[in-house]
Amino acid sequence: MRPSKDKTYMEIAKIISQRTTCARRAVGAVATDEHGYILGTGYNGVPSTFLHCNEGHQCSGASSLSGTNLEGCAAIHCEQNLLLHCSDLRRIHSIFITTSPCSSCIKLILSTTAQRIVFLEYYPGHENSKELWERAGRIWECYQE
Asked: What are phi and psi of 86, to 5 degrees?
């Protein structure tokens, strides 16, 4: 049976997350337009000139619990990388993410045309992201496999 678009893009997000360079959490994202065409992908990790945290060069935030000490972590979140590499921010309709966005990333995404966020699991400590997203009248959806 042919998988749905949601399943397909979530599977791609999971595969993209494997490219992480972060020692704490692997997160991947895929942006699509209203027709389901992929506009970009992103994963979390340190800037391209840094040595990788998950290869023995841990930043000061590497031992912190996920969702905490974001200032000490050198990783750029997958949503930020997605936006940096997206072919056209004005065409984003849906974003498929393995973990729901933090409050900083949700504010960035709110500045795009994205109408729908679909994720696999909640990011701890950032429950206000959902409130901000829904206040804008946009769709917040926990994906059920």
From this structure: -70, 140
Residue 126: C-alpha distances to residues 4, 40, 71, 114, 123 (Å): 29, 24, 14, 19, 6
Q: What is the DSSP string of 42-77?
A: EE-B--TTSPPGGGT---TTTTSPTTS-TTT--PBP
- Beta strand 28-32 with 94-99 is antiparallel
Full domain range(s) for residue 58: 5-142
DSSP 8-state assignment for residue 86: -
The tens digit of pLDDT for each residue in 129-139 reads 999 999 999 99
CB 141 within 8 A of CB 117: yes
Give tens-digit pLDDT for 109-128: 999 999 999 999 998 888 89
Determine whether 32 is exposed, middle or buried from the number of CB atoms within 10 Å of its CB (0-12, 13-18, 19+). Answer: buried
How many distinct structural domains can be found in the chain?
Answer: 1
Closest alpha carbon to 83 in 104, 58, 54, 52: 104
Helix (H, G, I), strand (E, B) or coil at 110: helix
Tokens coding 70: 């974001």
Instruction: Report pTM.
Output: 0.93
CATH number of the domain bearing residue 18 = 3.40.140.10
